[in-house]
Description:
Layout: E1 7-12, E2 17-22, E3 27-32, E4 38-44, E5 49-54, E6 59-64, E7 70-75, E8 83-86, E9 91-97, E10 106-112, E11 117-124, E12 131-134, E13 140-145, E14 150-155
Antiparallel strand pairs: 1-2, 2-3, 4-5, 5-6, 6-7, 8-9, 9-10, 10-11, 12-13, 13-14
Amino acid sequence: MDLQGQRLFVAGEDNSVVEILDLAAGKLVHTITDVKAPHSMVYRADLKKLFVVDGGTGEVKIYDTDSYKRTGSIKLREDADSMAYDPSTKYMYVVNGGEGAKMAYSFISVVDTTAGKSLADIKIDSDAVEALALEKSGPRLFVNMTGKDAVAVVDRGKTHRD
Length: 162
């Protein structure tokens, strides 16, 4: 959501679009169509950029939110899916790999949205990961490993260098 600009970004996964709604006017103002399966996204108001996790292409696509043109992408593995965002570091933690990529394990890629690049991959011993949660008062990342009926706990401070 873009609070200042009163826009809502909607991932239309089944329709292969990202729709931008003007909340003040109550209407659709733009449709991004060069996505296959948009799952989750982060809007950075300070950069005027939208980071869209596209599971169909296995990447995070970056869009300028004035023109809605794609300005870059960060390649991940197939089946990029859910994501958690840490506003203090500006890092996205993006699930990818696993069963949809014909892998016995999954990865959580640490994506620096300021630099526009992937910093590290955290290997998760499960072929299915469905959700992530960041600890607000500490460095832990909780990983819902649906392929193992378990929750993994990852220390984010030990996964990459800042």
